[in-house]
Amino acid sequence: MQSVDNVRKELAGKEIYIIRHAQGEHNVSSKFSFDPPLTTEGLKQVKSQHKLATTLGVECVIVSPLRRTLQTADGLFPGHGNMIAFEHVREVMGETCNIRLPVAEAEKNFPGVDWRLMKGGGLEGPDR
């Protein structure tokens, strides 16, 4: 494991962008479901920001394993090649919309994402 000082040196001069997901179904509906996708409007929002996102020179995309964040990241940085799903950057549990799909199902829908950090479960426990 690297020391904090080594990590600071490695990140020196790098920019970190934190992006919230586009409009999800749970943002406009009173009917909550597990891990809701983006709305049609949310997909339009992503498309409208794609060109700007590609100008940022992003080296690595760390994304929550929730469907709406994966859709947003995939739309902003399609085929990026260094997109990593990481449980600890997601919204907190408590609402049904924040309970994610099993990793095996998400992997099928987002094959360009590196899922290695998610193997063996996550906040919900081991995936089945």
Overall geometric form: globular
Across the major sheet, the strand order is 1-2-3
Mean pLDDT: 85
Strand content: 5-15%
Which percent bin holds the helix content? 25-40%
| Helical/strand content category | mainly alpha
Order of helices and strands: HHHEHEHE
Distance between the termini: 30 Å
Number of strands: 3
Unreliable runs: 121-128
Q: Gyration radius, to the nearest Å? A: 15 Å
Number of helices: 5
The biggest beta sheet reads: 3 strands, parallel
Could you describe the 3D structure shown?
The chain is mainly alpha-helical and 128 residues long. The protein is built from 5 helices and 3 strands; from the N terminus they run H-H-H-E-H-E-H-E. The protein has helices spanning 4-11, 25-28, 40-54, 67-76, 103-109; strands at 61-63, 83-85, 113-114. It has a 3-stranded parallel beta sheet, with helices on one face. Helix 5 (103-109) links the parallel strand 2 (83-85) and strand 3 (113-114). Helix 3 crosses helix 4 (67-76). The longest helix is centred in the middle third of the chain and has 15 residues, at 40-54. The radius of gyration is 15 Å and the shape is globular. The relative contact order is 0.16. Mean pLDDT is 85; it is low at 121-128.
Furnish the topology, listing elements before pairings.
Blueprint: H1 4-11, H2 25-28, H3 40-54, E1 61-63, H4 67-76, E2 83-85, H5 103-109, E3 113-114
Parallel strand pairs: 1-2, 2-3
Helix pairs in contact: 3-4
